[in-house]
From TrEMBL:
Organism placement in taxonomy: Bacteria, Bacillati, Actinomycetota, Actinomycetes, Micrococcales
Membrane topology designation: Multi-pass membrane protein
Source taxon at top rank: Bacteria
Transmembrane segments annotated in the record for this chain: 6-28, 40-59
Compartments where located: Cell membrane
HAMAP family: CrgA
Organism, as annotated: Janibacter melonis
A Pfam family hit: CrgA
Keyword Transmembrane on entry: yes
Family designation: Belongs to the CrgA family.
UniProt protein name: Cell division protein CrgA
Keywords associated with the record: Cell cycle, Cell division, Cell membrane, Membrane, Transmembrane, Transmembrane helix
Gene name linked to the record: crgA
Cited function: Involved in cell division.
GO BP annotation list: cell division
Length: 60
């Protein structure tokens, strides 16, 4: 039995969202997406990417 139809779009979406988060952080000279978080924006971006990566281990 395979994964539900929403699984792959969510998996890819998380990885892309994390990548965009990190790229936005660097392009805006560390002011966006959330200025108050400072360097923790990198952690948020990488956490999103890792969540997508962990989902790849369950992909059938």
């Amino acid at each position: 039995m395979g994964n539900p139809s929403w699984y792959v779009p969510v998996m890819l979406g998380l990885m892309l969202l994390g990548l965009l988060w990190v790229v936005t952080f660097y392009i805006t000279q560390q002011e966006y997406p959330v200025a108050a978080w400072g360097q923790w924006n990198l952690g948020a971006g990488f956490a999103l990417m890792m969540a997508g990566f962990v989902m790849t281990t369950r992909w059938k």
